């Protein structure tokens, strides 16, 4: 009895030491992820550890550019940060390209919760996180990618032929080429003007991001339920820092991360629904993909996926993709 | 405490003549070590040098500078000025008005305040002095007006940078600059006319024939302007891509007119290279410095203090404006902008001010900083290009700076001047 | 020393020519990309990425040392100009040493990162798949040239060979 008490005492003393974690994100202080996820998460962790863990919060790239945050977390400049996996094909070989495969998942909930379960264990945990000295805390996979245009309706793969489509990422560029359309890469900062003036005809983007960048003023037509690719993002913590934390704190951080993975994905899906509703009211034609159309698109997406798998030639990637498809049925 | 000492060292180093970029980089680095240690600094240095340059949108900076050099070297700008002076040179203050109008015209092509000032210093100052203006008045006018007009009238590198930094619509920002630019041009002309009734400076009146003949020589400029505007507004390319067309168009026109040769093209490229690396070295220094400032959390404390002070919104705005005028004395435009936006922007938006309008106010404030000593790049450039001493340029600038402050006041009191055109988009 | 100085001047100039030509290439590249995209529906793959990842990087870093030599880096001169020459020399050597320390670290950090990129074969996210390690090595080459430049200048000032 005595010895257990002793260990408890020491660990209690240890846990009483204040811990301050540096939390860095690219989103501005006013972004919905900041107000709906990051800030409440920090409060929750502080509360559940009885004030033991506190945060220095650096939003809006104050501690480094979005494309550097993964590196800055793995080398300890930041303790926790937000990653966008497409920036790191070398560091996140599976996440960066798997989540982008068109047709893989439809709602943010399905994508995020499924993937969060997968990355808690190998091979993804090792290959995309631990190997680089970081550990996943929260997963946020963007809602379904849709096609938006100012004029021409895009219903079936053959309708996209000949159009200039703004895309991002390797898989989607390839998919766009496969549709005999022209992938146009325009930076985020010029996306709006370029669309307005007709530099490109259509854009592949989820409804939430489209709305965030004010593009709702420009689009006349959009699809719903197309699932033309997603993107994998989330929060990571420096592994060394994580291992140095008392066990109770480790547990709280992972617990809160998992809870917010779910609540954030739900919130996102609800938000996306409200955007579609608002757009319809504004007179934007929202075409819900029918089963027939879905089948045609699926055939196309399957061929993109097959090519992609062949090119990757990575058994771990294939294994994860298979596991994702099995698991995702539970989270639809 | 440490931050106080470091800021003092920063000012001392600036005054010893150490390049601004080097000072920012050094103080930022030392500061980061004092807060988070050497490893963090190394981590930041390993990413910042690369990331501060790696952006497609930044390509507009060297390309607009290059376009200005091509225009200047092929004497297209001289002829534009010559024609304007034939039309308005004989009215009171004609040469001065010609300078303002030519600067506004040049402003539609150049997005770079520094490049425009360098070009107009060579072209306009000798012409104004021929029209009996003092060297100080002529140099002061160019130092204060050309850069501001180039930055206000689209295209505009500072407004593009602001748009990227704050994620505001670049298109709206560029359009927002048009009316304030015209207002500034108008106020400058008004001042020049009033002053000129006293000192009677004017050029010999050109005949109507001479005037129309002179129009022939401005076609290259007109074609170039239409070409660049066409690229942007027809949806052929983005504002960034239009910069490449501007430089390319200026090159082709110079070659067709046989004004440019291989040697001049190469000179233009070398000048552009030097100015580009100068600008980006400041950007890199400012980034490292701003990471340090972010780590001190002094900005958050300040912003919080201001927010909790119970000051009315306009009081805080005045405070911020004064802060910028002081900072503008010591710092470069891009450096100040990158340094302060993460702190000031959320505050301004939080107070309910329009972000597009603030972009215009901010760029005008920072442009004023380019002419105020001790660090005033346009002041130095005008002096260097015209051979008139910095002291004289500065003295000549004072009344025009006052005109700019009046313009600032008007834009603050009537935000619609900046916001009307974007509201139509 | 003179030999070293002359050599450095030549190297500086030569690689700045590379920067200058790169600006020309960048201009032509973007023009071609837009023309091919809008007229022929076939943009040049990877224009956005390569402009940021290589072209701008080459323009900026390969000329950073030459620009210093030419006095292009903006500074506040008119106060220090009023100081007596010996004080100016001392100040210049001190600020040079500070800059040498900082830029050495900048060059070293990027060199290390470059090696790391080589080891992990880090590549661009664009379809072109080119490696990124050389970009970081370009940064460190340019920065170390500047360091050597500052070093030689300081030595020359100490030996009284150069007026400040
Ligand atoms: Na302009
Ligand atoms: Na100033």
Overview of this protein structure:
Chain A is globular, with a radius of gyration of 21 Å. With 332 residues, chain A is an alpha/beta fold. Chain A has a six-stranded mixed sheet, sandwiched between helices. Chain A has a five-stranded mixed sheet with strand order 2-1-3-10-4. In chain A, strand 6, helix 8 (170-178) and strand 7 (182-184) form a beta-alpha-beta unit. Helix content of chain A is 50%, strand content 17%. Chain B has 22 helices and no strands. Chain B has helices spanning 2-15, 20-36, 38-51, 60-73, 76-88, 94-107, 113-130, 135-152, 157-166, 170-176, 178-199, 208-216, 219-233, 239-256, 262-296, 298-308, 313-330, 333-350, 355-369, 377-386, 390-413, 416-423. The mean pLDDT of chain C is 92. The interface between A and B is medium-sized, with 30 and 36 residues. Bound molecules: sodium ion (2 copies). One sodium ion is lined by residues 107, 110-111, 150, 153-156 of chain B.
Unreliable residue stretches of chain C: none
Number of distinct helices of chain C: 5
Percent strand of chain B: under 5%
Radius of gyration of chain C: 20 Å
Largest interface chains and counts? B-C, 60 and 64 residues
Reading the helices and strands of chain B in chain order gives: HHHHHHHHHHHHHHHHHHHHHH
Multimer state:
heterotrimer
Helix content of chain C: over 70%
Main sheet makeup of chain B: none
Q: Supply the helix-strand structural class of chain C.
A: mainly alpha
- Which small-molecule species are bound to the chains here? sodium ion
Summarize the structure in short.
With 425 residues, chain B is mainly alpha-helical. Chain B contains 22 helices and no strands.
Secondary structure layout:
The complex is a heterotrimer of chains A (332), B (425) and C (164).
Chain A: H1 2-16, E1 19-24, H2 32-48, E2 53-58, H3 69-74, E3 80-84, H4 95-98, H5 108-118, H6 124-129, E4 134-141, E5 145-149, H7 157-160, E6 164-166, H8 170-178, E7 182-184, H9 188-197, E8 202-206, H10 207-212, E9 221-224, E10 232-238, H11 239-244, H12 247-282, E11 285-288, H13 291-312, H14 315-328
Helix pairs in contact in A: 2-12, 5-12, 5-14
Chain B: H1 2-15, H2 20-36, H3 38-51, H4 60-73, H5 76-88, H6 94-107, H7 113-130, H8 135-152, H9 157-166, H10 170-176, H11 178-199, H12 208-216, H13 219-233, H14 239-256, H15 262-296, H16 298-308, H17 313-330, H18 333-350, H19 355-369, H20 377-386, H21 390-413, H22 416-423
Chain C: H1 2-40, H2 47-61, H3 64-69, H4 85-120, H5 133-158
Helix pairs in contact in C: 1-2, 1-5, 2-5, 4-5
The structure holds sodium ion (NA) (2 copies).
């Amino acid at each position: 009895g005595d010895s257990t008490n002793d260990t408890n005492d020491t660990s209690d003393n240890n846990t009483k030491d204040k811990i301050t974690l540096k939390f860095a994100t690219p989103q501005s202080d006013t972004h919905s992820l900041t107000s709906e996820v990051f800030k409440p998460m920090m409060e929750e962790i502080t509360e559940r550890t009885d004030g033991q863990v506190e945060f220095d919060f650096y939003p809006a790239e104050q501690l480094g550019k979005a494309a550097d945050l993964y590196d800055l977390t793995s080398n300890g400049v930041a303790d926790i940060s937000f990653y966008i996996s497409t920036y790191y094909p070398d560091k996140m070989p599976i996440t960066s390209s798997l989540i982008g495969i068109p047709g893989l998942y439809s709602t943010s909930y399905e994508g995020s919760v499924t993937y969060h379960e997968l990355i808690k264990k190998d091979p993804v945990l090792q290959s995309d996180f631990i190997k680089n000295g970081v550990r996943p805390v929260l997963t946020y996979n963007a809602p379904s990618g849709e096609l938006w245009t100012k004029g021409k309706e895009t219903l079936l793969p053959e309708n996209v032929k000949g159009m200039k489509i703004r895309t991002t990422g390797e898989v989607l560029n390839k998919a766009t080429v496969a549709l005999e359309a022209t992938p146009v890469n325009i930076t985020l900062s010029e996306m709006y003007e370029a669309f307005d003036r007709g530099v490109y005809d259509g854009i592949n983007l989820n409804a939430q991001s489209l709305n965030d960048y004010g593009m709702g003023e420009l689009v006349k037509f959009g699809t719903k339920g197309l699932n033309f690719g997603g993107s994998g993002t989330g929060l990571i913590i420096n592994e060394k820092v994580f291992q140095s934390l008392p066990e109770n704190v480790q547990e709280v951080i992972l617990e809160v991360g998992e809870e917010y993975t779910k609540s954030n994905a739900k919130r996102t899906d609800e938000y996306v629904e409200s955007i579609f509703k608002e757009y319809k009211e504004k007179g934007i034609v929202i075409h819900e993909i029918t089963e027939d159309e879905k089948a045609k698109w699926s055939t196309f997406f399957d061929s993109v996926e097959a090519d992609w798998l062949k090119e990757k030639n990575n058994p771990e990637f294939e294994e994860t993709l298979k596991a994702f498809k099995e698991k995702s049925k539970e989270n639809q | 405490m440490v931050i106080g000492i470091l800021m003092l060292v920063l000012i001392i180093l600036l005054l010893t003549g150490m390049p601004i970029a080097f000072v920012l980089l050094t103080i930022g680095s030392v500061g980061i070590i004092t807060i988070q240690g050497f490893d963090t600094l190394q981590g930041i240095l390993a990413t910042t040098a690369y990331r501060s340059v790696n952006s497609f949108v930044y390509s507009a900076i060297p390309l607009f500078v290059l376009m200005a050099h091509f225009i200047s070297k092929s004497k297209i700008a001289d002829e534009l000025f010559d024609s304007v002076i034939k039309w308005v040179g004989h009215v009171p203050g004609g040469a001065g008005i010609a300078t303002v109008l030519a600067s506004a015209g040049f402003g539609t092509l150049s997005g770079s305040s520094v490049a425009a000032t360098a070009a107009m210093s060579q072209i306009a100052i000798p012409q104004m002095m021929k029209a009996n203006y003092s060297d100080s008045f002529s140099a002061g006018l160019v130092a204060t007006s050309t850069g501001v007009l180039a930055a206000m009238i689209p295209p505009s590198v500072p407004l593009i940078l602001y748009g990227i930094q704050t994620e505001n619509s670049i298109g709206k920002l560029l359009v927002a600059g048009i009316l304030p630019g015209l207002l500034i041009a108008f106020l400058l002309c008004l001042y020049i006319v009033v002053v000129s009734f006293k000192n009677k400076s004017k050029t010999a009146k050109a005949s109507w024939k001479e005037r129309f003949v002179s129009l022939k020589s401005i076609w290259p400029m007109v074609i170039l302007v239409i070409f660049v505007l066409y690229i942007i507004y027809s949806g052929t390319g983005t504002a960034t891509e239009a910069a490449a067309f501007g430089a390319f168009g200026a090159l082709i026109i110079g070659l067709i007119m046989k004004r440019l040769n291989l040697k001049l093209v190469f000179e233009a490229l070398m000048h552009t290279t030097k100015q580009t690396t100068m600008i980006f070295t400041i950007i890199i220094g400012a980034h490292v410095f701003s990471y340090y400032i972010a780590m001190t959390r002094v900005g958050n404390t300040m912003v919080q203090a201001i927010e909790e002070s119970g000051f009315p919104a306009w009081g805080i705005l005045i405070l911020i404006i004064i802060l910028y005028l002081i900072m503008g004395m010591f710092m470069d435009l891009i450096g100040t902008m990158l340094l302060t936006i993460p702190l000031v922007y959320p505050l301004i938006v939080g107070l309910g001010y329009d972000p597009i309008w603030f972009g215009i106010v901010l760029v005008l404030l920072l442009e004023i900083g380019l002419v105020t000593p001790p660090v005033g790049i346009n002041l130095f450039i005008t002096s260097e290009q015209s051979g008139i001493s910095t002291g004289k340029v500065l003295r000549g600038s004072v009344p025009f700076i006052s005109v700019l402050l009046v313009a600032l006041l008007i834009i603050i009191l009537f935000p619609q001047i900046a916001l009307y055109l974007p509201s139509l988009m | 020393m003179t030999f070293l100085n002359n050599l450095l001047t030549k190297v500086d100039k030569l690689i700045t020519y590379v920067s200058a030509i790169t600006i020309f290439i960048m201009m032509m590249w973007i023009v071609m990309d837009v023309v091919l995209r809008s007229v022929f529906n076939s943009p040049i793959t990877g224009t956005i990425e390569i402009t940021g990842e290589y072209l701008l990087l080459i323009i900026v870093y390969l000329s950073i040392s030459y620009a210093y030599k030419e006095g292009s880096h903006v500074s506040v001169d008119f106060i220090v100009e009023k100081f007596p020459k010996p004080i100016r020399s001392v100040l210049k050597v001190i600020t040079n040493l500070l800059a040498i320390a900082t830029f050495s670290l900048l060059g070293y950090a990027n060199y290390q990162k470059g090696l790391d990129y080589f080891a992990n074969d880090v590549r661009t996210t664009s379809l072109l798949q080119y490696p990124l390690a050389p970009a970081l090595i370009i940064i460190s080459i340019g920065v170390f040239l500047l360091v050597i430049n500052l070093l030689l200048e300081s030595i020359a000032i100490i030996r009284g060979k150069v007026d400040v």
